[in-house]
Amino acid sequence: MGSLVFVFPIASILVGLYFITLGFWELREGVNRKQYIKYMFTGLFLLIILTPMIWLFGSSFFLRMS
Fold it and tell me: How far is residue 13's CA from residue 55's CA, in Å, rounded to a whole number?
C-alpha cells in the first residue's frame, strides 16, 4: 500500500506531460484552438495542482490505511 504513494504522483506527472505534449501538437497544427486550451489546462492542472496534493495528502492517507 505504501508503494502507491510513489506510483500515483509519477503516473499523474506522466499523464500531465502527455496532455501538454498533445496541446503543443494541437497548437502546431493550428486546427482547433479550444482543444489546445483543454489539453494544456488539463496537463498543467495534473502537474502543478494534483501531483503536490497527492504527495502531501496522499502519503498520510495511505499510511493511515495500512
Answer: 12
